[in-house]
Amino acid sequence: MGIRKFGATRFDVELLEAVDAASAREVPLALVIPLPAADIPIALGAASLVAQVVRTGSLDVTATVVSKRLSQRAAYDQLYIESHRLADFIPRARLTANGKVEVIGNPVRDRAGQLILTSEMNRVSGRGALVVDGTAADLGDLGPCLRRDQDLVYITDTPFDSNLDAIREAGGVVWAFDPPSFEDLAAPFKPGEATGEFAAPSELLRATAMAERVVRAPEAATSLDQALSGTWKALGRLAAVTGDSGNLAMTHATRWAWGVLSTFSLSVTSPASYDARVSRGPFSVLLGDATSHARAVSRHSAGPTRDAWAAVADGFDDIYEAARERPKFALVQDWVREEAGRRGTGMIVTRNQSAVAALTADLDESPLVPHGWAERIRVVSIRDLACGRVSGLPVSSMLVTGPLPRAYASLLAAPAATRLLVTAAGEWEAGRAARQARTTFLALAELRARTAAGSAVRLGTHPIVVRPADAHIVVRLDTTVVKATDVARDVDDSPWEPFGLDVLKVLARIGSAGADAAESPPPARGCNGGSTARVDAITVEFADGLAMLMDPNDIVYRKRQKNTRQVAAKSLQAGDVIALVDAAARRNLFDSVIDVLSELPTYAPLAALIAFWHERVARVSSSGWTYREILAAMRRNADPTTITSEQTIGTWVRGNSEGPEDPADVRRFAEAVRDTELLRRADPVGKALCTSRTIHRTVGRWLSGQITGARMNDDDALIDPALGIHVADLLEAVTLHQVTAVHAKLASVPASAIGVLVEESVIPRLTAIQLARETAR
């Protein structure tokens, strides 16, 4: 790949002028940029370095970028000034858990200049310019940074970000863009000069500016729409009776219910199909368990709270039954057929990876969906799109499977496509989705107007032109077209959440707050197919003054002397060291590190091919083929396989191994079971499996060395040369903590507190809370 020259757009120029003016006046700046996946934080971090070099005539300059996106790191390594790679002169570095700066790679010049990239706000020490990426991330309180750093730029994609008020209160300014403004800003800054992709692709700006927004639902009333509406109201009543209790456990349970309702709202497949794709574990959120969890909380509550939880449980039961009919799936099928006929590029955006897998399988199995649909249409999760894990944007058309959580509001107002369709279960949900798009669009337009009238004047930049904003949303109930403002709604009904309770602010007290409508752990953890409202935990204290509540039988990575293994938490002793991912012990450590890698656009196609392999090979279990028959057919092949055991094929089908060691066995397997879809992609799938195996082995060696304290050789500095990712890039997710004490006496605590690193002083308050204790008792 050669060096590609940037050609600035008017968007680039306005963005950099605002940042430079705020920096010169030492005014904190918030940028509201409703674009998914744009690498703006790293672009501004690099621009800050260059500006400092020009201003000081020295390479000893520093800037810090706070971002949870690994792709930001890879993007910096690809920036050049003329023919010189910027990272060779000003290397990137990371911040360790104790705030120490560690340079990554081998820079050409041994200078003090650095671009520091970190995912943790609390590690920032305040050196040089600070750029914070708040897009689709929960970065916590900006207050400490605002008090310490004046040269601060905060970037968000939603006008509803609570940190905007914090920046205003600190004397900062908000600079916002809205979709109409992108039409002019997509043009080259210098007429006749081609545009590049410095801050955002010009094609993405144009698509967002001209996007058509349509909400479509069945014209006839559906039982799912009625069930969603009824449960929405029940959740609002629940929050009304529990909102003033200050009970963190009850607040967590309410937030869990909110997340479950959001998953139901975005579901297109049957709940059983969704649950079949959820990885099993104590923190898994299964739609089939929602009713029993809610009833368990109701049984352990009293008075109005008991009744409110019972109503929510009834609502979940109604939704589960109604969702079996899949009323939205027909709309998705119609859209896929239309897009396949247009021969353009399409994208379906749904809840999470489990929903992606379920919908992909249902579309593959549907006789009404054209063959080869997946070659032009991708199914992705909301978070992957918002976090920059989806390449090839913009697309011709984008379908969102239902109303979105507020954190992802910009995807409706400013889609990464020229056409947006949101599916709904009926008139009530269609009205909610339409109000979401309209509310976000108007909020962005208001912020843009305030930018022109206030921020631009205060910063002394060139005047900006505000284009008229037309929040035109079309709602189609089958063939009937109605105005978005005419769709039925309740008085003062928010399109985002059914309650006024700020559950995130309450949960922030124990450090477990996250994005809107996040998939929180269940408020009760299943046991032998049942549910219990009690969560028993032991307390583990660490040398750094932090502590963690753990289920005695939850698995953790433990290092004891030179021995490292996965063990139950109850076996921990003083002196042990445990490894955590993102300050939590809720996920498999190796899988979590691989998930970090999957953020990279270069890794995503690899993961997609491997997922395709697993999905196709799993079909064998219901096909009637025996492992012996498959092996015999592969050995009769003109180019026979070298495997000799039918159990090897069993490990592929059951998912116990990633796949064949020999990439040609993918083709042989496809021919043996007569799978034409797999045969057509056999070569790229085989190559993907080989590359993935190499990456996984490298990650495994690094991870083992990281936990045991072994030093890695310089040769192992790269996970994979083609990806350009250093092992140090993965260190952001992993921290080591030495155990100083284990309190084995069980305490009943909220499920939300299990496996989360908190201040030791918080533990007594958590262990004193009973899940269903109410002041009325």
Summarize the structure.
The protein is α/β, with parallel strands linked by helices and 777 residues long.
Largest sheet: 8 strands, mixed
Number of helices: 27
Helix and strand content put the structural class at alpha/beta
Calculate the terminal CA-CA distance, rounded to whole Å: 69 Å
Dominant shape? globular
User: Spatial order of the strands in the main sheet?
Assistant: 6-5-7-2-8-9-1-10
User: From the alpha-carbon coordinates, what is the Rg to the nearest angstrom?
Assistant: 26 Å
What is the residue-mean pLDDT, rounded to a whole number?
81
Strand content: 15-25%
Q: Quick one: how many beta strands?
A: 26
Stretches with pLDDT under 50, minimum 5 residues: 527-531, 710-717, 770-777
Describe the fold and architecture.
By secondary structure, the chain is of the alpha/beta class. It starts with 9 loop residues before the first helix and ends in a 10-residue tail after the last helix. Helix 9 (223-242) packs antiparallel against helix 13 (303-323). The protein is globular, with a radius of gyration of 26 Å. The longest helix has 33 residues, at 427-459. The chain is built from 27 helices and 26 strands.
